[in-house]
Design goal:
single chain; 3-stranded parallel beta sheet; 8 helices
Length: 196
């Protein structure tokens, strides 16, 4: 198993036990494992045995504008725009507006600390109100980014993060008490970051 796995079955059929055994075997073989725990699985045995880092989603600091290692900024801007557009339910024209604002923030960026999603929102809100349909698309982008702010502002509004360090080790992200909306908002960008 090198990339993806799907396990299906009805309640009580042993999916969790199978997964815990699979993860244990992978860790014993010195393979890196990243788990997103949306259920509240008891990983304590694996955490103790292998020293895996377990992070509660409220402690995750993830600057989604910082591209994964070895990914060009231009490629990441396009990918991130598509992930956010899907996550936020944006139509094509609003997606174009989102890309425009992400691109504009990167054009202003000049230091080694990447811009963050808050700066994209500030760019949307600071832009003179456009007229007609363009103004509607601008409002839509701003309102949808506000949705992220309302749910996960602390996680996404950071300029620095520790994602690059996390990618070098096994870790578990505890999403068990996150709302389904928060889970979706975190998992979309995280999966894009991991698999890009």
């Amino acid at each position: 198993i090198t990339r993806h796995v799907a396990i299906a079955g009805t309640t009580g059929q042993g999916k969790t036990v199978f997964l815990l055994n699979l993860i244990n075997a992978l860790l014993e073989a010195n393979r890196k494992v990243i788990c997103f725990d949306v259920k509240g699985t008891d990983f304590d045995g694996l955490v103790a045995k292998f020293g895996i880092l377990k992070i509660h989603y409220s402690e995750l600091m993830f600057n989604i504008l910082r591209p994964p290692k070895n990914i060009p900024i231009e490629a990441w801007k396009r990918r991130l725009t598509m992930v956010l557009a899907e996550m936020l339910g944006l139509l094509l024209a609003s997606t174009g507006q989102l890309y425009k604002y992400i691109d504009r923030v990167f054009q202003k960026w000049s230091d080694k600390i990447y811009p963050c999603l808050k700066e994209v929102l500030d760019e949307v809100r600071g832009d003179p109100k456009l007229s007609g349909k363009s103004g509607n698309y601008q409002d839509t982008v701003g309102n949808r980014i506000d949705t992220i702010t309302d749910n996960l502002g602390q996680q996404f509004f950071c300029r620095t993060d520790f994602m690059e360090e996390l990618m070098n080790q096994s870790w578990i992200l505890d999403l068990s008490d996150a709302t389904p909306v928060e889970q979706d908002m975190l998992l979309g960008p995280l999966l894009a970051y991991i698999y890009e």
